Amino acid sequence: LALTLLFGCGTYGLEVRASAGVQTVANALWDGPEDEPSRLVAENEDGVRVVSDWQPPGGGGVSVLGLNAETTYDLFVEPEFGDLGEPVSFTTGALPSNLPDWTTTGSPGWQGFAVTSLMGGGQWAVVLDEMGKTVWYYELPNDGRLVRTRARRDGRGMWFEEGTPSIHRLLIARSLLSK
Q1: How many angstroms separate the CA atoms of 108 and 24, rounded?
Q2: N or C: which terminus of the chain has fewer CB atoms within 10 Å of its end residue's CB?
Q3: Is 126 exposed, middle or buried (0-12, 13-18, 19+ CB in 10 A)?
Q4: Contact 68, 37 (CB under 8 A)
């Protein structure tokens, strides 16, 4: 079930939808300025900021990877030179109850995302933020076998191998920068 929030009266007609498969991913579309690139920015009350790649003049569409579960974000369009769009509030869903849980300690010495796999209570391909929180996930079917997980070289998603190494499934998760 995908929840939809439509905001046609915002400066750039930003439309945000929750991903049907991954509750920590938002899909956004907007009508940007006709004469300059624009991008999407997501911020939460703790100052965590996720920024998409620049989209060509006229608008864009991105999947927003990097959002934490059960967290409210303000999403807005940022033109390269013009005024910021009006913010749209978006709340992510919960992580699956059978996703393995863990804790982290200390502070990160890096920025970005880690791509890995988890086993125990199922097999999962996951993307973690620098605080060790799951921001993207995929559970393999009971008869599946996770061989490896890795980020794509072009930064536009991830690969994971399921079954034998000759069988690949590509899942696209737009690459976003965190600041």
Answers
A1: 21
A2: N
A3: buried
A4: no
**Beta-carbon neighbour count of residue 65 at 10 Å?**
25
Cα–Cα distance between 175 and 48 in angstroms, integer? 16
pLDDT surpassing 70 at residue 1:
no
Give the model confidence (pLDDT) of 113-137 as tens digits.
888 878 776 788 888 888 889 998 8
Residue with tokens 């599946």: 144
Per the DSSP assignment, residues forming a β-bridge with 15 are: 6, 29
Interatomic CA distance for residues 80 and 12, integer angstroms: 13
Helix (H) / strand (E) element for 6: namely: strand 4-6
Nearest to 84, CA basis, from 93, 75, 92: 75
Strand pairing report for 157-162 and 177-178: unpaired
CB 90 within 8 A of CB 7: no
pTM above 0.85, yes or no: no
